[in-house]
Amino acid sequence: MNYDLAHALAKQISESAEVREYRRLKEIVEESETTRALLKEYRRLQMVVQMAAMSSRSVPSEDMQRFQSISSLLYQGTDTSAFLLAEMRLQQALADIYNIISKASGIQLDLPGLE
């Protein structure tokens, strides 16, 4: 197997507009300690919500309310909203690439959102 092509792909990903925009916005949002803390809690609660959905359990109402409140705060901010959207676009691009590679290998990996 030619790993040079994998390294070339990694370089292209690293230099992509999606990664550059994600990194630029990440620097901006990480300047604020409050924003960093909110993002950390948002991600923790997002995982709680996703895990509950995958296991057909309900999310404790306190966690759901907190998740919704933090989400609202983060998406109201111009920089944080742009950062989260850039992160989602990058995650989708990486999922698409992973899907292409896994199909080429013949390995069927069922990941949420991938067909």
Q: Segments where pLDDT lies below 50 for 5+ residues? A: none
Structural class: mainly alpha
Query: What is the percent of helical residues?
Result: over 70%
Q: Which architecture name does CATH use?
A: Up-down Bundle
Order of helices and strands: HHHHH
Protein described:
With 115 residues, the chain is an all-alpha fold. 79% of the residues lie in helices and 0% in strands. α2 runs antiparallel to α5 and α3 packs across α4. The protein starts with a helix and ends in a 10-residue tail after the last helix.
Secondary-structure topology with pairs:
Blueprint: H1 3-14, H2 17-29, H3 33-54, H4 61-76, H5 78-105
Helix pairs in contact: 2-5, 3-4
Report a brief summary of the structure:
With 115 residues, the protein is an all-alpha fold. It contains five helices and no strands. The chain has one domain (14-104): YheA-like fold, CATH 1.20.1500.
Highlighted features:
flat; mainly alpha; 115 residues
